[in-house]
Amino acid sequence: MYNHAPEGYICPICLAVQGIESEQTMAKQSDIVYRDALTLVYVNSKFVGNNPGHVIVVPTAHFENLYDLPVEYAHAIVETSQKLAQALKAVRKCDGVWIEQNNEPASGQHAFHYHMHIIPRFEDDDLRNELAKGNTRVTEASERLPYAEALRAYLGT
Amino acid sequence: MYNHAPEGYICPICLAVQGIESEQTMAKQSDIVYRDALTLVYVNSKFVGNNPGHVIVVPTAHFENLYDLPVEYAHAIVETSQKLAQALKAVRKCDGVWIEQNNEPASGQHAFHYHMHIIPRFEDDDLRNELAKGNTRVTEASERLPYAEALRAYLGT
Q1: Residues B65, B138, B83, A2: is their CA dihedral positive or negative?
Q2: With respect to CATH, is domain B28-155 assigned 3.40.50.970?
Q3: Facing residue for A106 by CB, picked from B107, B121, B128
């Protein structure tokens, strides 16, 4: 419903779920911090402002957005988001957790596979301004690795 | 877990759920657009920038944040959020839907009862900048009424 993926879209998130690294996939297998039958979580390849190392929760099957998500996946995603919010609190000693989930390009959706951002918040991180300025940068996998390793150690994954 | 409500906190969202209007409650009963055993939805009393009439989903029992939410409420909230996202698409003819959910003051949480924002998005609404500028305003119930009535008519509530 209200899908925007172009004809022949090669879904980078499906590739990541399948364990494939290619030119289409910014996410590397070393970014993955959690997996169950219905959900996958990885450290986002883009870091935002003063909130590096945030994570993305996705369904393991392809659905473009919230409107399309079958109920079993919707349930699994919210359960996984809780696990990760608690993990970020423990591992990052963050002062809060921000959930953002964008549906359709007008809402800022760029990858056409449902995904939820879970961002550790810190006092005075000025996140809204950083996001408004578009202050994000694509990182190397090596820069993401310590964030992924700390979450895997905490989650036992 | 990680709760911030001060001692003796009078929860405005619990009052709204209980059908009570008072000085503590910005939400009026006429703002409510959907209710089931575990969730309640109302038109937010604050309008944001160019995206007026967005809605808030809350659990009908008191939990401060995502960390604390029992799984049955978490499931119900994501199901209700889907209903409302689809309703906003139909009623507002919006171009997208934005989900935001803030945990703890450092993440911008002001009311200490879990709540999820569901915001209709429009091309060029410049929402990130409007939010960064803090461009929100408290409205009169009468201004919210057409938004609530349109959603109730669609949802049959």
Answers
A1: negative
A2: no
A3: B121
